[in-house]
Amino acid sequence: MQHLIDIAQAACEAALKAGADCADVSVREAASRSVDLEIGEVKNSEVSISSGLSVRAFSRGACGWASASRLDLADARGAGEDAAALARAADPDPDFIDLPTGGAEAEIAGLYDEAVSGISLHDLVEFLAPEIDAIRAKAPEAIISGGADAGYGAYVYVSSKGHVVTNRGSNVSCGIAAAVRRGDDVGMYHDWEFARTLDRFNPAGIGDAAVDEALNLLGSRPGPSAELPIVFGYDASRGALSSLIGAIDAEEIQRGRSFMAGMVGKGVASEAITLTDDPFIPGGAGSSATDGEGVPHRKWVLVDRGILTTYLHDSYTAGKDGVANTAHSTRGGRSATNVIPTLGSRTQAELIAEIEEGIFVRSAHIAVNDATGDFSQVIDFGYKIERGELAYPLKETMISGSYLDLLAAIDAVSSDYREKPGMIMPAVRASKVRVIGR
Amino acid sequence: MRDILLAVRDTAAAKGVKFADARGVTTERTYISRQDGRADRMSKQQSQGIGVRVLKGGSWGFAVTNVVTRDSALGCLDEAISAANLTTPKVDVELAKAPAIEAVARSEYEKDPREISSQVKMDVLRAHESEALRVAGSKAANTIVTLSDSVTRTLVCNTDGTVVDHEQVRVNIACRLVAAEGGVRQSAYEIKARVAGWEAIEAVEPDELSVLAATKALRLLSARKAPAGVFPVVLHPTVVGVFIHEAFGHNAEADLVLAGESILEGKLQSQVASPLVNVVDDATLPKLWGSYDYDSEGLPAARRQIIKDGVLVGFMHNLESAGRMGVEPNGSGRADGYAARPIVRMSNTIMEAGETPVEEMIAGIDHGILMEDGRWGYVFCQKGQYTLNAGGGRMIRNGELAEPVRDVCMVGMVLETLHNVDAVSREFELAWGGGTCGKNGQGMPVSGGGPFVRVADMVVGGQDS
Description:
Shape of chain B: globular
Low-confidence stretches of chain B: none
Largest sheet of chain B: 7 strands, mixed
Largest interface: A-B, 74 and 79 residues
Oligomer: heterodimer
Distance between the termini of chain A: 59 Å
Helix content of chain A: 10-25%
Radius of gyration of chain B: 24 Å
Distance between the termini of chain B: 61 Å
Strand content of chain A: 35-45%
Number of helices of chain B: 10
Largest sheet of chain A: 9 strands, mixed
C-alpha cells in the first residue's frame, strides 16, 4: 500500500508545485479473473490486472483533471502537472470553497477477503457448473449464458490537506441466464449472486431460479390498456426506486436539470416509503467508510415516510448551497451507498392476492426523464394479475406517467424480501399506473 | 511496442499455440466543457496496455497488462495459455482463414487536435454556448457544451502473420440545453462526431449544434405529452438509425447467433422483413463515427449487406464466427481498448433509402405520430423485444403534421416491426451522431441513419390517454 501512497503524494505535490492551490489524487491497483459461458460451456477466460491514478487540481476554484494508467513516479508527476495546467486554463469558480478535511472513519467488516485473490479460473467454473446442471435438468434445450468473476484491489486517496485514506476491497459474483425456445415463443430469465467475501458467496439455486422463471415466461401475450394497480417484485423494486436516488443528486438540482428541485422537506412518495442510505452494512455492495473525497460517511434517512430530507451533496455542492456536506461524493459525481427501504407488514404474495386485476413486474428499471419527471417504460419481464394470481406473462406492454405520481400511489411495501449484501429488496405495490398494451 | 508484440507472437508460435494475437493500444484523450457561462471541466487521460488472446480447441484465454515491457507481455501470454487450457468445450473452433496482412494506417486528418490549445478550444465552446443562450434567452435553465478528442494507436499482430498498425483521431462536440418556463422543464441534446481532426470541429456551425439544441428544447416546452396506445408511426431517420442498430443490428452479430442468443438463428436467406427493407453495416464510410480502417483483429473494414429486399443475407463476423459459419470474415471484430477482447460489433448501421416521398408517407395516416430525435434503445435478442426512445415528435392528423409531442418510448417485436414496414422514403439522412454501443461491458463508437420509415402500428408509451 505504501507504494500507492507514494505515487499519490508525488502527483499531489507536482500539482501544487505547478501552481495549483490544492489537489487530490486517487490511485488504484486491481486484479480480476472471469469466465464467460456460451451455450452452457466456458467460452472465454480472462485474467486482468489494472491500475491507474487520477489527479484533480484546483486553481482559483477551477478544476483540471488528469489521469494515467501506469503507476510510476514520472507519470504521476506528469499527471499532476497536467492537471494544474488545465486548472489554470479554466475560468475561476467562486463557488468552490476548499477540499474537505477528513475525520474519524468507521471500521466496516466484510469488505475485503484475502481468499478472493486465491480464486482461480477453475474455481469460477466450479461455481457455475452445478447451476448449469440444474438448468439442463429442467430444460435440456435451454440456451445457457452467463459467467463468473472475482476481483480485488487496493485504493488510496490523498489530498493536499494532508488527508490520506487507504482501503482494500474484493468481490465475487456470478450470473446465469436461461432461454427456452418453443417455436417462435421464447421464455428467458436470469439470476445472480454477489458477495464481497468468499464466506458469504453462495450461488446455489441461481440456475433453478433462472430456468423456473424462463419456463414461466413462455406463452407471453400483450397486456391490456388500462389504469391498474402494479406490484414491483423483489427484483424490480430496486430498479423502480433507484430513479428517485438519481434525481436527488445536488448538482442536478443546482443546475436546474432535475424535476426534484425544491422538494426537500416535501412529499415525494407515499408514507409507505422510507429509504435509508446505510454505508456501514458489513460486506455491503456499496459499503465504505468514506466517500470519494475521503469524508467519513454517515447513515442518512433520505426519504422519511415519503418526505425527502436531503439532496446528495459533495463538498462543492454543499458549499454552494451553504449546507452540511452529506458525504456522497464519488469524486466527480454523487451517489448513495446501500439504499434500504423500510419494510411493511404483508408479504409479496398477500399484496398480489389483494388485486383483482393488475400487473406484476418481475424485473425492470424505470427510466425517468430527469427534466420532466415523466416515465415511459417497457415491462421487460412481467405478468398480468387476475383474481389475485399471476395469470399470464406479458410482452409488448408498457407503463407510463409521472414518476412522482407513481411514488405517491405506493400503498404497500412487503414484509418479505430478497437479500444480497447491502441490498434489501422487498416488493412494492402502487395502487394505480397507466398500462399500455395492444 | 512493436518488438514486444512480435516477441509475444513468436513465443506463442514456438509453444505450439493454435492461434494467438497480441494488441497494444495507446490512447490520449482530452475533454473540456463549459457550463452556465464558465469553463467547467478540463481533463486529460492517457492509457497504454497490452492484451493477449490465445485459442485452444474451442475456448479462448485472454490476459492484459498495463506494464508495457517484454517480460510483462510474455507473462500475459502464459496467463492466456493457462486460461485457454481451462476447459475443453465440445466444439473445436477453426478460425476463418484470412491472408496475413501487413499494414500501417492513419485516419485522415488535417489538424491534430493535440496541437490545438485549450484556449482555442474554449473559444469554440464559448461561441456555441453564446448562440444557444441567445436563442433560449431567459428560458435557459442550464447549458453544457463539451468538446472531446482522442488519438488511439492500435498495433495488432497474430500467429497467422498479420501485423497491423493503425491510428485513429476522433473529435466530437456536443450541447445539452435545459429550458424551463412556468414549472415546465425540457431538455435537448445535439452532438457532432467524426473520425477526423480539429478541422471537423471548426466546420460545425452553431446552427447545427447549440442553436438546434436550444430550438428543440424551447419547442418541447410547449409540446404536449405523447399519447398512449397503438398507432401507425413514421420514424425519422435518426430514430430509424437507433432502431436498426438496437432492435435489429445486435441480432445480426454472428457471435450472438452462434451462442443461440439471436432471433435470426437459422434464418439466413429467409424473409425477415418487408421487401422494402434493405440494411447495411458499413465501416468504410469516410469519417463517420463508427468507421475504422482495420478492426481489432487486424482485418480491413468492410461494407456488410445484412438485409436485401427484406431477405436476411449476412451477418457481421469476426474470425471465429466466420470460421464456424464457413464464410469470409468481414472485419467486425472490435475491442474497447487493450483490456477488452475483440467481439463482434456494429459500425455504421444503416437502412437504405426507398422510393416513397415522406409527404406521401405522412399523407397516408389519419391518426398517428411522427417520431423524431432518436436517442436510445435496447433489445432482448433472444426474444426479439426491443425498446426505442424518441426525443420528441409530431402528431399526424388527417395526413398532415400537427402539434409537437414530447419524448416517449415505444416497444415492439423486431421481426413483426420489420414486416410491418409499409413505406420507406427516398429522403435519407446519415447521422452525424456520436453514439456509444454497449455490449458485454464494452463501449464502442457507432453511428447510423436511414430514410423515414412508416410502420403500420407500434405500441407508444405516452403519458396522455
